[in-house]
Amino acid sequence: MPDPVRDRLAGVAGLLVLVAGVVGVVSGLVPAERGRLRLVVDLLGLPVAAGAAATSVTLGVLLVLVARGLRRRQRRAWAVAVPLLVLAAVVHVVKGLDVEEALLDLVGLAVLLVTRDSFRADPDPDERAHPVQLFLQLLSASVVVGLVLVHREAAGSLGAQLQTVLRGLVGLSGPAVVRPAHLDLVDDVLLWLGALTLLVPVFSALRTGRDRQAPAPADLDRVRALLDARPDGDSLGWFALRDDKQLVFSRTGKAAVSYRVVAGVALASGDPLGDPEAWPGAIAAFLDRTCRHGWTPAVLGCSERGGTAWSRAGLLALEVGDEAVLDTTTFTLEGRAMRDVRQSVNRTERAGLAVQVRRVGEVPAEELDRLRVLAASWRDGPVERGFSMALGRLGGPGDERCVVATATRDGQVQALLHFVPWGDDGLSLDLMRRARGTDNGVNELLITRAVLAAPGLGVRRVSLNFALFRRALEQGGRLGAGPVLRRWRALLLLASRVWQIDSLYRFNDKFGPAWTPRYVCYRRPSDLPRVVVAGLQAEAFLPQLPWS
């Protein structure tokens, strides 16, 4: 069987297990058909049939959780799903001769056995023993809580009460006599404790692995060497030095990919680092790692050259916006096109704002500490936004070549910009913060003065913010735009009320930049919704859930 066919069939297996789990939950909750149930009761007794129904619910939920791991091709999920399906098929027969549900389990089992080689993804190395430990801890806590409850509500020896608790955790009755008024309460509490004892460790075992450790200092030094060796590199290259990104290098060490895992998606940002001739090796190493851990590979904000390299490795590319780049050798405030910017600059300077542009290495340590405090206090919300185009720190070790521009009035800092190096003659905007109530136009003042001061710093190009779906916003408002484009622009304007898509584009456009396209890359169309959600979570526009 060709690998693509086998891979698709493995996806069908995950779906079958999911359906079997849902059916198991519903079947356990719905009363069995009377004629069939009578046969089971006559043969095995009513307690066995009732216990099988409760077990069916638990197994169904387990199968639903296992299906999540199967979708990510986890080997551990396959090993758990096979015995669960066998047990579920038996339980369906025992609880009421539910042959149809049992056949569904067996079909899912057969497909899993045929596609076993497709499930190769490993869990996190540091989580291999965690589910067992968690199960033992939950079991101990459940037994203690159950004993307290049964001792209060039931008569009998301690041994009988312990047996009642252990049997109650799997939905069976025990020898201790529970007061009739509280029988349902005891049974429900014990059953839920048993379900949690089983489900939480299984969920933990199947959770997608993540690289949690910060990059090693030696790896960061290798990245800086790659950045220094390619002065024509990507404007987002310096952001590979974020503390929450991981690195994977090509075999030769001449190229690397930086990434972060969010909600099971391995998000690479920007172009690969280093020599473009060595990019395929780094890309192959990254894709191999995603396959090994069951992650969905994706790329955010790569350039056209980077997108071409990713496309050659089998990923699809979609243009999602443009980067605004200014040429400092030709930038000027003169002319009608720059009138709005010129007026903002003149107005803020008349209001007493003065700008200072310096390399971070030239800023005294005490002043740098104050700027960090101010930047954090001016942040919009409790979470630091940004991932693909943000460094996440101000003035860290090794960042001496970064540039900070500050606007002050009467010796007090009112706003600041932070730029990271782009090759040996460029800067890329990282941070833009200002105090609440500061004069409108202070950001225009800071950008203008930073760009005009750039030639003195040996900088001839400055990358500003990224404008999402710029072409649609620009072309959708033109005369003669088609209905689809107009509706797409209207949707973007609606979204701009939350995410400032249109206002950010218009702000950048005031400076007359050259626009360069940026792309998102993904493995297949069905992955795109997950990639979008993971990207929004990484950029802190959506909250990250505890299990993501």
Quick recap:
The protein has 548 residues and is an alpha+beta fold. It is 51% helix and 17% strand. The model is unreliable at 125-129 (pLDDT under 50).
Topology:
Elements (H helix, E strand, L loop, with lengths): L2 H27 L4 H11 L1 H26 L3 H22 L2 H16 L15 H24 E2 L2 H11 L8 E2 L4 H24 L10 H13 L16 E4 L5 E8 L2 E5 L3 E2 L4 H15 L2 E7 L1 H9 L3 E12 L11 H12 L3 E6 L5 H13 L25 E7 L2 E11 L3 E9 L7 H12 L7 E8 L1 H6 L7 H17 L1 H9 L4 E9 L5 H11 L10
Parallel strand pairs: 5-7, 12-13
Antiparallel strand pairs: 1-2, 3-4, 4-5, 4-6, 7-14, 8-13, 8-14, 9-10, 10-11, 11-12
Pick out the low-confidence regions: 125-129
Average pLDDT metric: 80
CATH architecture field of the largest domain: 3-Layer(aba) Sandwich
Please report which band the strand proportion falls in: under 5%, 5-15%, 15-25%, 25-35%, 35-45% or over 45%: 15-25%
Plain-language structure description:
The chain has 548 residues and is α+β, with helices and mostly antiparallel strands. The protein has four domains: 1-122, no CATH class; 125-207; 217-315 and 523-538, 3-Layer(aba) Sandwich (Aminopeptidase); 324-517, Gcn5-related N-acetyltransferase (GNAT) (Aminopeptidase, 3-Layer(aba) Sandwich), CATH 3.40.630.30. It is built from 18 helices and 14 strands. Strands 3, 4, 5, 6, 7, 8, 9, 10, 11, 12, 13 and 14 form a twelve-stranded mixed β-sheet that branches. The protein is elongated. The protein starts with a helix and ends in a 10-residue tail after the last helix.
